[in-house]
Amino acid sequence: MPETETFRIPKRRQHVSTARQRIRKTLADWGITDELADAVTLLANELVTNAVTHCRVPYSQVKVELTLNGTELLLEVSDPDRDRLPQPHDSAPEEEGGRGLALVAALAERWGCRQEPYAKCVWARFELREGAHVPATL
């Protein structure tokens, strides 16, 4: 049976660190503390920051879901601005931002986005190395 951690944060920049801390703790609770934990935490930070920055729905929340299913780890970040799907682009060297999705593409096995009835979801999948996860039930 998959293990899942789901939580919501207010769509405010000061709550991005809360999401990052929750992701890091969940991964540690699942026995994932290596480079994969660093990559997932970094990408969670990027995706949550994107949701907080670009969602145009006022007073909304960002949903973060992390699911561990066997050797696959899925990170999903959703916000209610369903019609504004993320678009990767090439950032000029002098630009301060715009590289988040390139980072997601580089560190995740696969990534993408989908429209849901009342939200959009950006997701990233990761593969665990053999023996990298100790089930919480042991």
Can you walk through the features of this model?
There is one protein chain. With 138 residues, the chain is of the alpha+beta class. It has a single domain (3-127), classed as 2-Layer Sandwich (Heat Shock Protein 90), CATH 3.30.565. Helices cover 30% and strands 28% of the residues. The protein has 3 helices and 5 strands, in the order βααββαββ. The protein has helices spanning 16-29, 35-54, 100-107; strands spanning 3-10, 61-69, 72-79, 110-115, 120-127. The chain has a 5-stranded antiparallel beta sheet with strand order 1-2-3-5-4, with helices on one face. Helix 1 packs antiparallel against helix 2 and helix 2 (35-54) runs antiparallel to helix 3. It is globular, with a radius of gyration of 15 Å. The relative contact order is 0.21.
Quick recap of the structure?
This protein is an alpha+beta fold and 138 residues long. The protein has three helices and five strands; from the N terminus they run βααββαββ. It has a single domain (3-127), classed as Histidine kinase-like ATPase, C-terminal domain (Heat Shock Protein 90).
In CATH, the architecture is 2-Layer Sandwich
Q: Mind telling me the CATH superfamily name?
A: Histidine kinase-like ATPase, C-terminal domain
* Count of structural domains: 1
Give the class from helix and strand content and strand pairing.
alpha+beta
Query: Averaging pLDDT over every residue, what do you get?
Result: 89
Ends: how far apart?
A: 14 Å
Strand content: 25-35%
> How many distinct helices?
3
The CATH topology label is Heat Shock Protein 90
| Number of DSSP strand runs | 5
Helix content: 25-40%
Overall spatial form: globular
Trace the largest sheet across and list its strands.
1-2-3-5-4
Give the CATH level 1 class: Alpha Beta
- The low-confidence parts are 134-138
